Amino acid sequence: MAGEAQGGAAKAEVQSHTGVVCDCADNVGSVVLSPPGADSPFCEDLSGSESSVDIALWIVQGLLALVYLAAGGLKLVRSRERLVASGHLDWMRDASDAAVKAVGLVEVLGALGLVLPWLTGIAPALTPTAAVGLVVVQLGALRVHLVRGERKPLPANVLLLVLAAVVAVGRLLG
């Protein structure tokens, strides 16, 4: 009886922190790691490797979202001339105002797409799609910088590309 009460308390605690507890035959009481509202959530024990992968993906998604919100937001709210004057965005000298704003908008939308669909469970397939879109953005950035002979931004572009690819693959397979 005491064990039942203790198990019930643990289950209630898990529910209060995560909102969902698994009812799968083999994993009753395990935390659901799939996005909220998913049609067929999978269940895993929090001590398993799946939870570590999920946590790592959330960290990468959050960091990428912050980077793209900041970079895209600046492109949307600041003038192209002011951005060029900062000395770090020389490629903008040859780009139109509309092109810079379009890149900023794509970056902001990509940042939101990395987090919101998976977090809310509303169209979670948009999260890996957004990650693939940001891979394409970085491929374009790499091309622009290589053509212009700008070597300094290449490591950051490659890092962002790899991290977005990790999110895309991780969320597609997970």
UniProtKB/TrEMBL annotation:
Keyword Nucleotide-binding: no
Pfam families: DoxX_2
Membrane protein topology class: Multi-pass membrane protein
Keyword list, A-Z: Membrane, Transmembrane, Transmembrane helix
GO CC terms in record: membrane
TM stretches of this protein: 55-77, 98-119, 125-142, 154-173
Keyword set includes Transmembrane helix: yes
Cellular localisation: Membrane
Protein name: DoxX-like family protein
